[in-house]
Every structure is written in C-alpha cells, then in structure tokens.
Amino acid sequence: MSETNVKTVKKIKKVTDNFNTEVNICKAEFVGMSTVKENYTTNPIAVKKVKKIVKDESTVKSNVMGNSLCDFSDFESSKVEVPSSTNMPTVKKVKKTISNDECEGKQLVFTKVIDLDPKLYEDFTKEKYPYGLIFFDYEVFPLDWCVTFIDVIANKKIVIVNDRKGLLKFYQTHKDAIFVGYNNRNYDNNITKGIICGMNAKEVNDKLIVERLKGFQINNNFKDIQLYTFDCYKLGNSLKKLESFMQMNIEETQVDFNLNRYLNEKEWEQTLFYNEHDVKSTIEVFRKGQKGVYEGNMGLIGLYNFDISYINKTQAQLTEEILACEKPKEPRNDDWDLWLIDTIKLNKYKYVADWFMSLRDDHDRTRIETWKNGKYIDISKPKDKDKNTLEFHTEVCGVEHTFGLGGVHGAKEKFEVRKEKGIYHSDVNSLYPSIMIEYKLLTRNAKKPQEYKNAYDMRIKYKKEGNPLNKILKIPLNGAFGKMGDVESSAYDPLYVKMVPVTGQLLILTLLETLEPYIDLIQSNTDGIIYTLKKDEYKDKVFEIIKDWETTTRLGFTTDTIDYLIEKDVNNYLFNFSNGEVEVKGAYLKNTNDLDNDLPIVNECMREYILHKVNIEDYINSCDELWKFMKTFTLSGDYKFTTYNGVKCFNKCYRVFASKDLKSTALMKWKHEIGTILETVNSKGQLIKREYKGEKFAGQSDHVFIENGDIHGKKCSEYPLLDKQWYIELVYKRLEDFGIDARPSMFEEFF
Fold first, then answer.
1. For the structural domain made of 350-451+487-585, what CATH number should be given?
2. Contact, 356 vs 367, CB < 8 A?
3. pLDDT of 130 higher than 90
C-alpha cells in the first residue's frame, strides 16, 4: 500500500471510530478500505466523508458526534477524580478527551452495551428476581437526552444517548423485565413512554415539571405502553440526600439543564458520569431500604394472583385492588355525620365525646378540605384557626392531653422513672384494623370487604406459625385506613376516616376513666397507655379492668413491663423493656441508618449516656469516623440559591460539618437576591423596610465546612478543622430538653 493510501485509511479510521474505553477518544480497529465501505454504507455521514477522503485525499476533520454507530465506553467512577475535601462544593474536571471544537454544534447519537463485573451485583439472582431488575435514570436537555440502564441480573450496562431507535430496540427485548428508578413513577417512566411515542423528550420533561401534568394528561397512549416498574422513592427525600446519608459523592453536575445547544464533549462526560452515578445510588437505596417494600409488593401480587403489571402500583393502591374499591357515583354528603358507638361509656370525661359530636353539629359542610400529614386541614381558613378548631386540649388522669381527628396524645414532660416503680406498657393489638372490622368502619367503597377480615385472620395465623407472609399482610391491613383519607383514592371515605380515630380515642378514654383511681398515667397515645400503679396491691384490679374492657370492646390488649423510661414529651422518649429491647422515638434519640443519617454521633451518644452513663466528651472525642458527624441540607424549591463564605452556590444538596475556623460561615439559603429590600407593615400601620439577609439552615454550627465528596473510610483526624466541641455542646443541650443536666460540675472539671 502506498504512503498516500496509508494516510487515507487512517483518515477513514478517524471517521468510523468508537470512543476508547480509557480516555473516551474516537478509535476503531484497523480495517481495509472495502471493509470500511461495507460496514458503514448505512451511515450517510460516514459514507459522505469516506467518499470525500477517497476523492481528494485532503485532510478531514472527523466528526463522529453525529454517527449513530459511535459510542461512549464505560464511565466507571474510578476514571474520574472527585473532591476528597473542600470548603466549597465543586466538580473537578475529568480527563481530557476529544476537543470541544470537534464536538461543537453536533448531536451525539449512540447506544452502548458494556459488560460489568458479576461480583458487583451477585446478590441479585434470577432465582430471587425471576422477572429481572433493570435500574435506570434519564437526563433531559433542550436538544439532548440520555439514559443509563444497569441490568443487575445480566450484569450489563446500557448507555443510550439521543438514540430513539436504540431505545426502542432495547425496550422491545426487555419490556417484560421490571425497571427500577428513583421517582421514576412521576418522571422517568413518562420520559420513556414519550420517546417511544415519538415525542420530544424535553417537551415531555416540561409538561411533567413545569406544567405538573400526569403522564395520562400528556399523552393518552402512555397507558397502552407496557412498562413494569418499581419506584424506590422515599417520601420527603431527594436521591442526593440519600446519597449523602450513604456517604457517597454528592457533587452535582455543573452542566446547565437549560442549555439551548447540543452538549459538547466535556458536558457529556459530566452528564454521563452523574447519570450513571444516580443509577448506582438507586441500586444502593434498593439494597439498603426499598428491597423489603419491593418484596412485600411481589408477595401481595403472588398471594392474590394479581398480574405482574400490578408491580407498578404502590402498596396503598394494591390495597384498593384487594378490596375492589370503587368510588360512589354520587357523593354521600355525610362527611361530618359522626356518631358514638355503643361501647363508649364515659361519665367524667363525657365532655370530650361531646366536643367530637360538636364537630358534627356545628361544622360548615361547605368547607374545603385537604388531607395533609395525617390530618384534615381546612384550607379555607387560617392555619391557626384550623388547629384550634380541630383539636381539643384537656387534662386526663393528671396529664395534659390533646384530642383531634388524627388521634390522641398526652405525656408527662421531662419525666424519668425506673423499674422499682413497676412500669406497664399496654397496647391495643392492631387498633385501626380491629376497629374497622369490629365496628364495620372499613371504607364503604370496598366491594370485597370480606377480604380485609380474611387478611386479618390469615396474618394472625401466619404470625403464630412464624410464616413470613404475616409481614406481607400488614400492607393491606395498615394501608386501608390511609387510603380512606386520600381524595384521589377509590377507597376515599371522608366520614369513616374520621370515625376510626375518633372511636379509638374515646375507647382508650373509656379505659382511662375506669383505671384512674388505680394508676399514675405517664403517657397515652392513640393505641396504648403507659402507667405505674398507685399501690402494688392494685395490680390485679387493674388487669381485671383491662380484661373487662377487652371483652366489652372486642379489642385485644398486650401488656409489657418496662425497666426504665425517659421522655421529653409524647414524641421523644426511650423505653428499656424488661426483655432487654429498647424502643426510641423522636429525632433526638432515633437509631440512624444508611437512609436516615443526620448527626448520628449525637443520637448515638444521647442513647449511650441515658442507658450506660458514658462520658460524653470522651465518647465524642474518641470517635474517628467522619460520617458520624455529618448533617445534610437540601435546598427546597422555595429558595433560589445558597451562600457559603459569601459566595453564591447553586447545588441542591450539601453535607456540612461544624468547623473550628471562625472565618468560615454557616450555610445560608436565599428566597430573594442579595441586597433585596423587603417592605412590611407593622401592627401600627407603619411601613418597615429591611434588607433581606438570607436564612440560616437550622441545626448547624455558625461555622461549617462542606464535604460533598465520597466520605467512605474518611477519618476525623484527616479534618483538623472539625469542631467536636460543637457536637458535645449539642448533646448537653438536648439532654437538658429531657430534664437531664449532664454537664460536669466545676469540681469534676478540675479533677
């Protein structure tokens, strides 16, 4: 071959390259001229350039970014350096690849399949997941889109960029698998269906996010597209926040999602790296928390012989299907027709029942209602009036109680008691399900109400046998009540969703009224009470009263003994049961985990001090695991940006630590631009002007540093600015909220 022809072949190679796996540059195996022509005659861009090279042998600037046969290779995280320590959230530049001017103005189109190490996902097997599991996530721009799929059963990664044909082919060969994402029920599923229908991905994106439309409102054909999916979404948590809890890198792409041009090479590198990172994070969320939910859903599908397409439904929606719920054709107009069941027997506290009945008699039926956080909120009136209208405060058994449509609670505040007093914890067994069965208060929309009783009976049977199906049956039993309060649900029953908690509260109150002469009440809640005996000899009498109550109400009680109890209030407490189990409730004491991991060292130290009286300063100072000191903040949609050390930041998620550097600031959030003058009118009618200075994220030190990189294995000793004293002071302060003064005295400090 002549020297001229060798140069020509090299130029043709450049046109027909793939992206090299190590540095992502265009590369192809050396092939002869005829082979190149044969393999790429279907690619008009490549053919045109080959012809031009053959014709005049001039230098050709290869641009394979428009070549649908070209592909990116594996973007493993090990190929990209990420920040290990930083005071400002940044994204380091990835390794240099092809030049931007080679990519400018051209759209990248490709589909790439990459084999993965089988050891990565060896916990996912065909036996455990016979339908297959494919995790996925989309990124959508005005002129570009991409999706990464990770098939954990086949150990394949599939990256598709702007290639609708590639997506259609992948969909057709994998449509019987189950696709798993994070918030995919609201987003990624609809992007997939939109592209399949030939819609523009950005158009679908904007209808979902900007116009807040549902998939069926965007395109009626979406409902006809088979797509089996499971959503790992955890209420109230962004994926980035969960990534922070899991100690992962939470750096965010710096690529503008409103970029009104094709992405260039550097932008694609960032985008594909973070796209894959989010898919891997979703896999971890599944492993560490949502796997049980998935298995519960699949268990119900198998137990009730539902079609596999029911995996698309939430657990609450599966409950609707089990009960065959249908909304009434006409509204019943009885939302507030409350009544007292005949087993409620009140004398001293009858006025509480009268208050509930006053809601029936006095309630304006034209009020607009919405279900929020387990309570009805009247959005036609101010929130403070709603609370006063729908809550009733009174003293019961010497303890201040709050009654309402969401339940009852009352507790002695800053209270501590030990075993010698004899502490009893009596709980009603499955209170709401039992009430719905015994008093026929299951949603009236259920066409198969007997299925609820069947599930209840089966669960009791399976629980006695040690059959794990008993846990699966908790799903419809607990889910039915919640769906009765969901106006969008086919189980929606606004009267019965009030009647169930009202009945439960008044039945508990009936018991307390009878027990009052014999017990000292510590705490009561919707389904149980905690108390000590006024005299030891009252024990038999107390249990006789409880037994009579069970017989009358047809509800069952379980009573356990507690060795030690401490409570800040009804929502923050620790019980140490006589069998050794410890129960905690509330943000101060809860056991943190991989998907709920704010200030774990503080909670851990609180529990250890309460139970074992550890030395607080020694405990915290001896801890060398950085992740235990983290606090994660996410910027809500109400705010535009954040500032740190006086610099604007536009990330949505930050992992912060208390800092000894007094020059550093706290992390601030801003609804308005810096320097904005806000005008308000005071109670005297005077116009008040003030400069808006942002708002501090709650629960952080006045001085922090930010570490958004991967912190697995990071040691506190690597971060000399970490201010452990701030965490020590926080433990002292929180213990004071429980009524405990744990600070060492001056005498103790001296010695």
1. 3.90.1600.10
2. no
3. yes
b/e sequence 668-705, b meaning 16+ C-beta within 10 Å: bbbeeeeeeeeeeeeeeeeeeeeeeebeebeebbebbb
> What is the reported pLDDT for 654?
98
Helix (H, G, I), strand (E, B) or coil at 228: strand
Q: Which of 556, 612, 594 is nearest to 712 (CA)?
A: 594
Neighbours of 29 (CB within 10 A): 9
Q: What is the DSSP string of 43-93?
A: -HHHHHHHHHHHHH-------GGG-TT-------GGGS---SS-SS---PP
CB-CB contact of 689 with 678 (8 Å): yes
Residue 173: is it exposed, middle or buried by C-beta count within 10 angstroms (0-12/13-18/19+)? Answer: exposed
Least Cα distance to 72 among 44, 40, 109 occurs for 109
Alpha-carbon distances, residue 712 vs 243, 249, 626 (angstroms)? 12, 9, 9
| Cα–Cα nearest to 704, from 725, 721, 728 | 721
Of 524, 535, 575, the C-alpha closest to 416 is 575
Q: What is the DSSP string of 520-569?
A: EEEEEETTEEEEEESSGGGHHHHHHHHHHHHHHHT--EEEEEEEEEEEEE
Mind listing the pLDDT tens digit for each residue in 343-390?
999 999 999 999 999 988 765 443 434 433 334 444 333 334 344 468
Two tokens, residue 487: 């106006």
Q: Give the relative orientation of helices 474-484 and 291-303 as an angle to the nearest 10 degrees.
A: 100
Question: Hey, what amino acid is at 646?
Answer: G
Determine contact, residues 153/128, Cβ cutoff 8 Å: no
Summarize pLDDT for 650-701 with one digit per residue, the tens: 899 999 999 999 999 999 999 999 999 999 888 888 899 999 999 999 999 9
- Which region among 53-67, 579-593, 667-681 has the lowest average model confidence (pLDDT)? 53-67
Largest CA distance in the chain: 111
CATH entry 3.90.1720 includes domain 96-313: no
* Residue 42 pLDDT greater than 50, yes or no: no
Both tokens of residue 316?
């609450």
Q: Is the pTM of this model over 0.90?
A: no
Digit-coded pLDDT (tens) for 272-329: 999 999 999 999 999 999 999 999 999 999 999 999 999 999 988 999 999 999 999 8
The predicted model gives 226-254 an average pLDDT of 95
Q: Any idea where the domains of the chain sit in the sequence?
A: 3-66, 96-313, 350-451+487-585, 600-750
Q: In terms of DSSP bridges, do strands 415-428 and 528-533 run parallel, antiparallel, or are they unpaired?
A: antiparallel
List C-alpha distances in Å: 30 to 9, 12, 17, 35, 262: 8, 10, 10, 10, 30
One fold for 96-313 and 350-451+487-585:
no
- Count other Cβ atoms within 10 Å, centred on residue 592: 16
**Cβ proximity of 654 and 249 under 8 Å:** no
Amino acid identity of 255? V
Listed range (38-52, 503-517, 699-713) with the worst mean pLDDT: 38-52
pLDDT, residue 37, reads 29
